[in-house]
Specification:
235 residues
């Protein structure tokens, strides 16, 4: 007999899927969905379910990133998005980042592919002083989001950020809250789902009015349990 672990069961999460669909289709004011739960309650499986839904919708472009595998720095985040959407779609960003110099003072402007080794060199050249880093990176930030908006308009797609394991973002979490979520709030065709054992507060002064928080717990929908039990062979 198969051992049944109710804590790890996700079933269909019908209510969560319905809310996500309404966000995608612009049927409510929520554009930032925060999903908080302890380990084992199916956050990652739910993110995967959202991602599959987006893949099946031609008018939606998902950007799925797991902070468990991402070095927590804006440049690494940008680099990951370029990998997903294609570097050729970010000409302004590539131009701005090419203006930064390596620690050896060698300009990388001739390099058409800003790979991870170049990103690492740029990070070193920026130094550790926070205000200096932010000042030097600001043109890159602006160009990145400008390119992303241009891409969305060209494709006529809704861009959906699916960000998992937010508790691993650590110091990078402040950038997400201050910059990324602000940009999402200010761009009507963008939305985001952030999942983790810890997530940003849904009462943020800038973007809190367009955010909704879900606390994942035990599944209490009878139809969810019935379908899950049939699929799992518990009959």
């Amino acid at each position: 007999m198969t051992k049944f672990n109710s804590k790890r069961a996700i079933a269909n999460r019908t209510k969560e899927m319905a809310l996500f669909r309404s966000i995608i289709y612009g049927e409510n004011e929520t554009r930032i969905l925060l999903i908080r739960a302890d380990s084992g309650f199916g956050k990652t499986k739910l993110i995967d379910k959202f991602w599959r839904f987006c893949q099946e919708n031609e008018a939606v472009t998902p950007i799925k990133i797991d902070f468990k595998y991402l070095l927590t720095d804006p440049l690494n985040f940008f680099d990951e998005v370029l990998d997903i959407l294609g570097e050729e779609n970010f000409p302004r960003y590539n131009l701005e980042i090419s203006k930064l110099e390596s620690p050896q003072g060698i300009e990388i402007s001739g390099n058409q592919t800003v790979g991870r080794l170049d990103i690492q060199a740029i990070q070193m050249s920026l130094g550790q002083e926070r205000s200096t880093r932010e000042r030097r990176l600001k043109p890159c930030h602006t160009a990145f989001f400008d390119d992303l908006r241009h891409l969305g308009k060209r494709l006529k797609h809704r861009l959906v950020f699916l960000l998992d394991t937010f508790e691993k973002a650590e110091n990078f979490s402040a950038w997400v809250e201050k910059n990324l979520l602000k940009e999402i709030k200010n761009t009507e065709s963008w939305c985001a789902v952030i999942a983790g054992q810890n997530v940003p507060s849904d009462d943020h002064i800038v973007w809190g009015k367009c955010a909704d928080l879900i606390e994942l717990g035990a599944i209490d929908d009878e139809n969810d349990w019935l379908e899950f039990s049939i699929q799992a062979g518990y009959n």
